[in-house]
Design goal:
eight-stranded mixed beta sheet; globular; binds zinc ion
């Protein structure tokens, strides 16, 4: 992107001006961000191309503060550590020790990381007000994952995302579920799917590995609430 052209671009949410943050520049901006001061949205510039799409973190940032939050498959803690700034108690569960070590490096005090299996979690009958499970359907039998999530939520919100990338050879789950079936099962389990995620979507997920590396992929997101 030519830095001079950033003046012609505006925030897709509030129409505010976008500030340019350059991480790597030659004659063009190779990597960087377009940043909206007003609503704090950030749009990445990757390989000279600005990606101005609704981003998954924009959905997560909108969730109001909750007392008990759990993220399954928290990995290196990108989401959980951010959630810790806003929500009261945040638990991150993952099966990778090295990922959890990384997560722990930057975690706020109210963020607890535990190496555990989602289906054999150490929370007994404890209920949560926000459950986040991003891109786990390929790794955990989808029906069992939905059962666990459903039994752990009370008066709260769940937030799921997935690219439904089930082709993993012998490690593939036995019974894949796709966007429509997952929504049907959630409805059977008395979840109310948020209006904006009723229709399957293709949201850009930019994972900021570090200042210079981003991973971008497309996911369907589902947010749903259960009131009892
Ligand atoms: Zn804005």
């Amino acid at each position: 992107m030519n830095p001079k052209n950033s003046q012609f671009l505006f925030c897709i949410k509030c129409k505010g001006a976008l500030n340019l943050e350059i991480l790597n520049e030659s004659s063009e901006v190779n990597e960087g961000f377009l940043y909206c001061k007003k609503c704090k949205l950030k749009f990445p510039i990757i390989s000279k191309i600005p990606l101005i799409l609704e981003n998954i973190s924009q959905f997560i940032e909108k969730i109001p503060s909750k007392p008990f939050v759990i993220e399954y498959g928290s990995s290196i803690g990108i989401i959980s550590n951010t959630l810790g700034k806003k929500h009261e108690h945040v638990f991150g569960i993952d099966t990778s020790f090295s990922a959890l070590l990384e997560a722990k490096k930057k975690s706020p005090k109210n963020c607890e990381y535990i190496l555990s299996d989602t289906l054999q979690h150490p929370f007994g009958k404890k209920k949560f007000n926000l459950i986040i499970a991003l891109n786990l359907f390929e790794l955990i039998e989808p029906r069992l994952l939905l059962n666990t999530i459903s039994s752990q939520i009370r008066n709260g919100l769940i937030f799921l995302s997935d690219p439904y990338d089930y082709d993993r050879g012998k490690n593939s789950v036995k019974h894949p579920l796709y966007e429509k079936q997952i929504r049907e099962i959630l409805t059977q389990k008395k979840f109310l799917i948020t209006k904006s995620t009723k229709t399957p979507s293709n949201i850009t997920w930019t994972l900021n590995i570090n200042k210079r590396t981003n991973l971008v992929y497309k996911v369907d997101i589902i947010s749903a609430r259960k009131s009892s």
